[in-house]
Amino acid sequence: MLLKKTLAAKKKALILCPMPAASALDDALWSHDAGSWIAHGLDDADGADYCHVWISTDMAANPIKAEFLFLLHGSVPITWDGIARSFYLFDGRSDAQLQQARDQWKEWQNLGDSKLGYFSQNTQGGWDKMA
Question: What is the pTM assigned to this prediction?
Answer without folding.
Answer: 0.89
